[in-house]
Amino acid sequence: MAHYQPHSGYAPLSIIEAYWHALRGPREVPKRSEIDPRGIESALEFAFILERVAPGVARLRIAGSHLHDLMGMEARGMPLTSFFTQDARLRVAELLEEVFQTPASAEVLMSATAQGTQLPLEARMILLPLKSDLGDVSRILGCIVSQGEIGNAPRRFDLRNIDVRRLDVPKPSEGRAEKQPAGFAEPKHRFTPQPKVAKAQHNELSATKRPPYLRLVKTDE
């Protein structure tokens, strides 16, 4: 995905995405329970967390103040499709399923047209999948940042471009470090039986070199 420069106004997207990647590490998807607001403090007002409640339907469980401003009301509990026009909602529902089921990350370019006293508004959104405590991919860490004056809310967006990226699944051998012995313990080695021929030679050699500590002495009385 793109990395936005601070002066572009879209820096919160990069902050959220970098935090998600740091949590993910070598895994396919990080867990919802690992999200710590302190890690994205400078981007919290633009962040949100979605929960999948039905195919194509995901509701906001956490929503930053910027999302409240776009809707003109409390956004928590609303479906993500509430931020979009009627024509765009079906594609948004399909996109959510792509992110959950693939799993994949997504970046969306959106725009709201001018209506009445409302000025045109451009926005970008990222969707990053998360696992629930049950291990299923049913949560999303996301971010929406708009550019321009919001004006009279609610503002609803049309889709201009969608970039979906399938997440690479690490191979079993990738990221798996060789197990090291604990403390001062030496690494274990597999026992290999000694060949019979070599063993016989060893015994013969040992018998030859062994000093005669005990000798039978015969005396005539």
UniProtKB/TrEMBL annotation:
<feature type="region of interest" description="Disordered">
    <location>
        <begin position="170"/>
        <end position="221"/>
    </location>
</feature>
<dbReference type="InterPro" id="IPR009922">
    <property type="entry name" value="DUF1457"/>
</dbReference>
<protein>
    <submittedName>
        <fullName>PAS domain-containing protein</fullName>
    </submittedName>
</protein>
<dbReference type="Pfam" id="PF07310">
    <property type="entry name" value="PAS_5"/>
</dbReference>
<feature type="compositionally biased region" description="Basic and acidic residues">
    <location>
        <begin position="170"/>
        <end position="179"/>
    </location>
</feature>
